[in-house]
Amino acid sequence: MSMAWCVLAQAPQPAAAPRPDGLYATFQTSMGTIVAQLFEKETPLTVQNFVGLAKGTKPWLDQRTKAMVRKPMYNGLIFHRVMLDGMIQSGDPLGTGDGTGGIKLKDEIRASLKFDQPGRLAMANTGEPNSGSCQWFITQASPIPSYNGSYTIFGQVVEGQDVVKAISRSPGAVAANNNRPKNPPKLISVTIDRVGPPPAGPPTFQKAAPVKK
Fold it and tell me: Which of 25, 69, 86, 184 is most buried, judged by most C-beta within 10 A?
C-alpha cells in the first residue's frame, strides 16, 4: 500500500522594512531582542556616553577592583529593577542599583521629548540634577507625566516592545519604585549600528530671541 505525501509550498515572508538613517542600539536579552534608535542630534552627550560604554571605548571605574577599565560595560548584566507594566532598568555593572562606573553625566532634558509613549529609552539618576551615569531604563507604561523633566530621553524602541513588556512582567515584578525580580532577566549584550551616513556637523539648538524693551 503506497502513501502519497503532499508538500505545501510556504509563502515567502515579506522583507522587513529598511530602517531610517540613524544610530541604533540592539539589546540582546534572555527574553528576546530590543532595538532602539538613539537621539544623537537631540541628546549628543548622553548618546556618546552610552555608545562609549556599550562599545568599550570609554573608560569607566570598576567599583569592585577600584581600577579604571576600557571594556564593554553592558554585556552580561541583569535587569535589576523592574516595574510591572511600567519600566525595566539595567546598565549597572554591580547589579544592585548602586553602580555608577565613576561617571557623572549632565542632563539633556528636551521639552520636545516626553514620556508620552511606550519604549522611551532614558538615563536613570539619583533624583538630583545632573546625576546620570551608566544606568538606563526603557518604559512600558504610557504616558508617565511624572517622569517628564526629570530624566534625559535619548532613544526610542523601534523593535521588540513586546520583549520590554515581557521583561516588565517577570516573576516577582510589582508596581513599585524599587523592585528586583526573583530571577532577574539577563542583558546578554548591547551592540551599536549605524544606518546611512552620520549627521553633518554638531547639533544646534535655537536660542530664544531677545526680549525687546
Answer: 25
Instruction: Give the E-state strand segments of the chain in sequence order.
Output: 22-29, 32-38, 60-62, 67-69, 77-78, 81-83, 87-90, 120-123, 136-139, 153-159, 186-195
User: What is the rounded CA–CA span in Å between residue 16 and residue 160?
Assistant: 14
Residue 57 belongs to some domain of the structure: yes
Specify if 14 maps to a domain: no
* Position 39 in a domain: yes
Residue 172 included in any domain:
yes
Give the Cα separation of 82 and 182 in Å (integer).
10
Of 96, 97, 98, 90, the residue nearest 73 (C-alpha): 90
Q: Any bridge partners for residue 190, and if so which?
A: 27
pTM for this model (two decimals): 0.86
Distance of CA 120 to the CA centre of its chain: 8
Percent helix, strand and coil across the chain, each rounded to 5?
10, 25, 60
